[in-house]
Amino acid sequence: MNALMVVVIIFAAIAFFFTVKMVDLADRWPVNEFYKIEDTDYAVRYSNLEPNGIYKGSEAASSLVVEGTFGYDWGVALEGDKLYINEYVATNVGLTLCDLVAFDMDDMSKQVIAENTLLRGRCKSGELVLMGDYIMPSNNPDVNSLCKFYSMSSPSLAKAGERATVIYMDPDTGQVLLSLEDKSFKGDSFDNKYLDRTLDEVKAEAGAAASDGEEAGK
């Protein structure tokens, strides 16, 4: 029996060693993703070999312009000499926040357009569609008490998946053209409801819904 216990302990130790070693090797696995920003010489890089940020040049020969963790895909839009992009910031309490920022492509100076706001893309008529007062789903807002504590700084902060403050912005002037709250918001329907239609179509539906609400309240 003692011999059997010794064998079990040895195999358990070996299994533990390999498990720890595999996790360690996974952490060291090289990541170096390079995403071009539309038809420009700039790109967003995610890497554990080099600093994350906005780079200029080809993937093989690029230089860091702005260090940080930025969005790509639908998290970036270029309008003239202005680059709108999501910037993700990790706090010292473990939350990841998202601010919409704009860079002047001439000197790469940064302006914070809106805090706790996510750029989702352009609608069919070209305006930028944003999600305001937004806590990133990666923070697990339903179970993370830190999210509840952070949301006390702004009562309008939305729980991911429950509702959305949808904002349409003119990318040329930065003017907010429409802001509405969608209490029946579902993440997988966002594109159909807001990106695949024009601003006028969304305005018309929002106006009709408001009129129906007023009639119901009489």
Element string (H = helix, E = strand): HEEEEEEEEEEEHEEHH
Which sheet architecture does the biggest sheet show?
5 strands, antiparallel
Total beta strands:
13
Radius of gyration computed on alpha carbons: 23 Å
Helical/strand content category: alpha+beta
The mean pLDDT is: 82
Report how far apart the termini are: 83 Å
Shape: globular
Oligomer: single chain
Query: What low-confidence regions span 5 or more consecutive residues with pLDDT below 50?
Result: 20-26
Give the helix proportion (percent range). Answer: 25-40%
Task: Quote the beta fraction.
Answer: 25-35%
Q: Helical element count?
A: 4
Q: What's the SSE blueprint?
A:
Layout: H1 2-27, E1 32-36, E2 42-47, E3 53-57, E4 62-67, E5 69-70, E6 76-79, E7 82-90, E8 96-104, E9 110-114, E10 118-122, E11 128-132, H2 145-151, E12 164-169, E13 176-182, H3 190-195, H4 199-217
Antiparallel strand pairs: 1-2, 2-3, 3-4, 5-7, 6-7, 7-8, 8-9, 10-11, 11-12, 12-13
What can you tell me about this protein's structure?
This protein has 218 residues and is of the alpha+beta class. It is built from four helices and 13 strands. β6 and β7 form a beta hairpin. The protein is globular, with a radius of gyration of 23 Å. The chain starts with a helix and ends with a helix. Residues 20-26 have low confidence and may be disordered.
